[in-house]
Design goal:
The protein is an alpha/beta fold and 387 residues long. It has 13 helices and 16 strands. The strands form three sheets. A seven-stranded parallel sheet has the order 8-7-6-9-10-11-12. The structure holds 1,4-dihydronicotinamide adenine dinucleotide (NAI) and 2-oxoglutaric acid (AKG). 1,4-dihydronicotinamide adenine dinucleotide is lined by residues 57-59, 79, 82-83, 86, 143-149, 166-170, 174, 201-204, 208, 229-231, 254, 271, 273-274. Catalyzes the reversible oxidation of 3-phospho-D-glycerate to 3-phosphonooxypyruvate, the first step of the phosphorylated L-serine biosynthesis pathway. Also catalyzes the reversible oxidation of 2-hydroxyglutarate to 2-oxoglutarate. Residues 318-387 form the ACT domain.
């Protein structure tokens, strides 16, 4: 029986995949794994028995990935599972940025009119205040062409928008997902100077924190709109406030900040990007499925801090060793097994940055000689699991 603890609202369609005879959800203090959304793990105590954390979402800046890796805690996330929800809210926000739709709706809803005739007369008189422009023909710059950025880029083309993207880390697979009509900026400056709307879709890391600052804003066109549905900490707020007094007309964000609230040129949503039923279900299902795969078979899929490592589970006795990525680890593991009379049937080893993972299937008839302690004796081994 595995014990699971959840933080935040995790969709039932996902949690139902934990079979009650195999999993107990939120019923014990000592959980083997957590399923979370935006819960801040940086401040949390990590108990030694915690095996994994599954983040039902894309961004993992709320989780200390490296620290957990060195403690042998595998972190999973759900790449792409909420991309469509975010993209649709970004599209809606782009429309809001060019047409004063909310202002018009507020005006008509917050007035009282004597009768239908006076309502219609007032409307005809006032509607010129709410004239906007069209997205078609505008130029949009997208920084970060991953799951959200790529899908957005392709859709914007269909709306007749000129799209230019910047992503210095774009993978070959990622590039295949993007229409050739999307222009590639080699330098950020090529994009900033030219766009009517800039939208940010890169992760928050130590390298990108506060990256969007005066050097960016100063290069932008007068009247430009900036959309941030990625993370609030990507932006230098003091520089943004100055830019809003200068050339940036509007800032639309999913990450409200106290210093920006109520600013007439700022529209803030309460982190709603992924808040659709479809996205919440997709994320929960993907998070639960990858977590179950790991807990039940040791295979790692969609991890944010360990290498993806899959070995089909054929029911043989299996060892899973989480260890540091240092020379001769596989050699030492193989020797310890041989010393214990254990024959390796199948094995896979993958590394990622400072850590690595070795999955070993061993011959069934030798399993009684297995001693996990023999592997823990190897320096650099963080955790050993047996299946
Ligand atoms: N508002 C919300 O509810 C949501 C927000 N997000 C945020 O959006 C971010 C992006 O999400 P996805 O597209 O799903 O992630 P993704 O991992 O598929 O794409 C991120 C892209 O950013 C690129 N990138 C990294 N550093 C960059 C840099 N310095 N300059 C330009 N590009 C850079 C990467 O190469 C990658 O292609 C997430 O990290 C998360 O912070 C994601 C989902 C929901
Ligand atoms: O779970 C949520 O609502 C937030 C999603 C998010 O920000 C992400 O996936 O990075």
């Amino acid at each position: 029986m595995f014990h699971i603890k959840t933080y935040n609202q995790i969709a039932e369609d996902g949690l139902r995949r934990f079979k009650p005879n195999e999993y107990a959800v939120n019923d014990a203090e000592q959980a083997d794994a957590w399923v979370i959304r935006s819960h801040d793990v940086h401040q949390a105590d990590i108990p030694p028995y915690l095996l994994a954390i599954a983040r039902a979402g894309a961004g993992v800046n709320n989780i200390p990935l490296d620290r957990l890796a060195r403690q042998g805690v595998v972190v999973f996330h759900t790449p792409g599972a909420n991309a469509n929800a975010v993209k649709e809210l970004v599209l809606a926000s782009m429309l809001l940025s060019v047409r004063p739709i909310l202002e018009g709706a507020n005006w008509v809803n917050n007035h009282t009119f004597a009768d239908q005739t006076s309502l219609e007369e007032a409307m005809e008189q006032q509607k010129r205040r709410f004239v906007g422009s069209e997205l078609r023909g505008k130029r949009v710059g997208i920084v970060g062409l991953g799951a959200i950025g790529a899908s957005l880029a392709n859709d914007l083309l269909h709306l007749g928008i000129d799209v230019i993207g910047y992503d210095p880390h774009l993978s070959v697979d990622g590039a295949w997902n993007i229409s050739q009509q999307v222009k590639r900026a080699k330098q950020l400056s090529e994009l900033l100077a030219d766009v009517d709307i800039l939208t940010i879709h890169m992760p928050l890391t130590d390298d990108t924190r506060h990256m969007i600052d005066a050097t960016w804003f100063k290069q932008m066109k007068p009247g430009a709109t900036v959309l941030n549905f990625a993370r609030g900490e990507l932006v230098n707020d003091a520089d943004l406030l100055e830019a809003l007094d200068d050339n940036v007309a509007t800032y639309i964000t999913d990450f409200p900040k106290q210093v920006l609230l109520g600013h007439p040129q700022v529209v803030a949503f309460p982190h709603l990007g992924a808040s659709t039923h479809e996205s919440e279900v997709n994320c929960a299902i993907q998070a639960v499925d990858t977590l179950k795969l790991y807990l039940e078979t040791g295979s790692i899929r969609n991890s944010a801090n360990f290498p993806n490592t899959e070995l089909p589970y054929v029911g043989k006795r299996r060892l899973a060793v989480l260890h540091l990525n240092v020379p001769n680890m596989v050699g030492q593991i193989a020797s310890r097994l041989a010393e214990n009379g254990i024959n390796i049937d199948n094995m896979v080893n993958r590394s990622r940055n400072d850590v690595a993972y070795t999955l070993i299937d061993i011959d069934n008839h030798k399993h009684e000689t297995l001693s996990v302690n023999a592997l823990y004796d190897i320096e650099g081994v963080m955790r050993v699991r047996e299946f």
